[in-house]
Backbone:
């Protein structure tokens, strides 16, 4: 029997399942149908899926240490155990949805999503896409109930495949499956009558991750031999070709969103596209660089330094998009032609507020991206004024997340410590300058670059949270800047490369 408290948590959890149009909320786990997977329908169809959704709602409302959350999690584990050890009946679509939600909000999400994939393959979910497209191409009238059901199945299939791609590409391994699809098939689903605005977001992510996966495979194939000067041309071509593909992706999907998305969803959909694009640019260049084995920027050739600079510039834009998406637009902002998000200034401040519900992976990406942009700015010896501006934006992100942080304390603390350590490095540098008597001095006049590493900067460079070592494999945090004179070649070689 469901208690009144559980029912209250259920109602709070509905934004995990459906789009709340009044608040312009988006699907955070885009594997549900707005009309079919209603609160009442899920409650009637699947206790496993229902309890899983409620547990996430409880965590968002009361925090990860809530007794109610732990009781619900225990119940969810009982459901999963029952499914795994009693394979009498084939797993249902609702079971796969429940496990996908577990994966989205779990430290071991890659294990849960592997289980979901196995069950999906067992009941033939991949075939639903081809069946759907075959029916679509042959029918003369509107979609039948069978076709609508196939679209719901295809949505779940692409949703769990997308999670597998995310967890693999940013978890340090290639995906466990090869997604048998094409851009043409994905675009065919975009034009289907059952497609929603959230489906556009999902399908664009699937296409983006396929591009990223192809690039990673090519980079790893190249690095399996050697990364010498002979192979630099090949790496350069892989990066260049993928950058072109990503540019076409953002252009084409921005066009789709601008023409097809509902007016109340358009601005948020556009800002999400740009955030994802910049993330893909960051990880592409740093992944290509990491396989060279050179971590010291002082020892890099010009091509390698260019990749670091490109990644940093993308990281700066990534941070600016997040800040703009979470700041009320002003009349001046809409006239600012220099802003990277020109044309997106009408975005309502909802991006970071959805982090109350968002999956752990997105929290990890946010914390990492802020840490990375601050580190790269230091390593590339950006002027102090540039770092001050980045720190200002980082503080805005921190303050917004402080309002809604309940169940993601670890990543919030990583973000907070990153900002504190960067500020410490900048303060120590400014105090060492003979012409600077205060941190703010030099922002309006002439300023020198940060040419020497202070103790605080070295401490910041060495800051690599364990979550980004054991749970995620985001590239770039191993980079350092150790200037060398000829006499330095004879001491402490371990710190050089």
Residues:
């Amino acid at each position: 029997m469901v208690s009144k408290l559980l029912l209250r948590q259920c109602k709070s959890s509905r934004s995990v399942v459906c789009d709340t149009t009044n608040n312009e909320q988006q699907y955070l786990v885009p594997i549900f149908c707005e009309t079919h997977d209603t609160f009442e329908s899920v409650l009637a169809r699947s206790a496993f899926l229902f309890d899983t959704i409620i547990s996430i709602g409880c965590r968002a409302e009361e925090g990860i240490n809530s007794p109610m959350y732990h009781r619900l999690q225990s119940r969810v584990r009982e459901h999963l155990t029952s499914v795994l050890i009693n394979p009498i009946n084939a797993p249902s679509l609702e079971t796969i949805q429940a496990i996908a939600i577990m994966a989205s909000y779990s430290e071991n999400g890659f294990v849960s999503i592997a289980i979901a994939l196995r069950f999906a393959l067992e009941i033939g979910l991949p075939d639903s896409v081809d069946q759907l497209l075959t029916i679509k191409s042959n029918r003369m009238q509107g979609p039948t109930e069978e076709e609508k059901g196939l679209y719901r199945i295809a949505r779940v299939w692409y949703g769990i495949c997308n999670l597998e791609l995310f967890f693999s590409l940013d978890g340090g391994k290639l995906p466990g499956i090869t997604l048998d699809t094409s851009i043409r098939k994905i675009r065919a689903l975009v034009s289907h009558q059952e497609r929603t605005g959230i489906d556009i977001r999902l399908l664009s992510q699937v296409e983006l991750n396929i591009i990223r996966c192809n690039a990673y495979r090519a980079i790893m194939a190249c690095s399996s031999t050697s990364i010498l000067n002979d192979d630099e041309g090949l790496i350069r071509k892989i990066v260049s070709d993928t950058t072109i593909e990503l540019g076409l992706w953002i252009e084409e999907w921005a066009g789709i969103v601008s023409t097809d998305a509902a007016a109340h969803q358009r601005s948020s959909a556009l800002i999400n596209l740009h955030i994802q694009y910049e993330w893909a640019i960051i990880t592409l260049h740093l992944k290509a660089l990491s396989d060279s084995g050179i971590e010291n920027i002082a020892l890099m050739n010009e091509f390698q330094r260019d990749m670091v600079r490109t990644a940093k510039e993308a990281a700066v834009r990534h941070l600016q998009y997040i800040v703009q998406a979470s700041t009320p637009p002003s009349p001046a902002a809409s006239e600012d032609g220099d802003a990277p998000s020109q044309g997106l200034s009408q975005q309502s401040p909802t991006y970071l507020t959805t982090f109350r519900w968002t999956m752990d992976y997105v929290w990890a990406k946010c914390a990492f991206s802020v840490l990375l942009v601050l580190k790269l700015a230091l390593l590339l010896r950006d002027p102090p004024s540039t770092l001050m501006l980045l720190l200002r934006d980082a503080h805005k992100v921190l303050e917004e997340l402080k309002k809604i942080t309940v169940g993601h304390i670890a990543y919030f603390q990583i973000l907070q410590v990153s900002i504190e350590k960067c500020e410490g490095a900048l303060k120590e540098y400014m105090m060492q300058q003979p012409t600077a008597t205060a941190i703010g001095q030099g922002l309006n006049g002439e300023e020198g670059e940060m040419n020497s590493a202070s103790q605080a900067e070295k401490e910041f460079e060495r800051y690599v949270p364990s979550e980004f070592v054991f749970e995620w494999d985001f590239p770039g945090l191993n980079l350092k800047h150790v200037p060398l004179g000829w006499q330095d070649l004879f001491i402490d070689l371990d710190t050089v490369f």
The chain has 20 helices and no strands. The two ends are 61 Å apart (CA to CA).
